[in-house]
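re: that chain from earlier
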Amino acid sequence: MEFIAIFLSGLLALVSPANLAIDRIAENAIRSQFGKVEQLQVRVDNAPNFQIVQGKVERVRIGGRGLWVTPEFRIAELEMETDPINLDVARLRQKRVRPTELLKEPLQAGVRLVITQQDINQALQSPAVSAQLRKLGSRILGSNADMLVQRYEFVNPQVEFLGDNRLRFQLELQEPGNADKLVVSVESGLGIVAEHQLQLIEPNVLVNGMPVPPLLVASFVSGLNSRLDLRTLEDRGIAARLLKLDLNQEQLELAAFVRVEKPDTASASTPR
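^ sequence. v structure.
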C-alpha cells in the first residue's frame, strides 16, 4: 500500500497551481515520488476545470510501467482509477499536514498491479530485504526461533513462479564459519480468502530435501497467513478488498479496491 501514500502526496500539487495543465502537473508530482520511473501516464478528469482549485477532482487515472517504489523494489505495471476526490484546500496552508488529513471525503480507487518473478528475485538479493526476511522469520516463528534466526545467515533467497497460482520459495541458511548449509524450500498454492487475505494453500516445506513435520508447517503457515491479512491496514485508515489474483510462470497480477478514510473517521473504515 506504499503507492497510496505516494499518490496522495502527488495530489498536493494538483490544487496549488492556477493553470490548466493538470495532467502534466499530476504526472510530474507522482513521478517525483518514485525513485525511478520507466513509463507513466496520468489523466485527470474534471468538469469544469476550475473545480481543481477548490480541491475537487472527478477522477484520476494512472498507468505506469517500471515504477521503483524503493531502490530494491520495482512494480512492473500499475493501473489506478479513482472515484471523485474532495480535498481540503485550506489545510494546505498548514505546516506538517499528512496527505490523508487533506481528505474531506474518503478516497476510493481501483488498483491493478503486476510484479514479475525477476523483480522479486532482484529485491530478495538486497541487504535491506534480507534484513526484513529476518524480522519476518522472527515474527512468524515466535520468540523460540530468535536464536535460530540470529544464528544463521540467509543466503540466496529466490522465488520461482510455477503457474496455476503456485510458487516455490527457496532459501539457504548458513552458519558463519561453517560451509554446511540448510536448504529450506517452500512450495505452495496462493489464493484469496474472503477478499481480504492472501493465503498459502497446501504448502509443502522441505529442509535439505526432508519434509518438515506437519505441526511445524501449520505453525509457520498460520503465522505467515496472519501477516498477509489486509485487515491489518485498517488501523492506518486503509480498507482493501482483493478482487483478483493470477499467478503464472512469469508474473503475479493483483487487482484490489482500496478505500482511504479521513483520519477522524478511519476507525469506521468499511469497503464498499
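The first strand starts at residue 36 and ends at 45.
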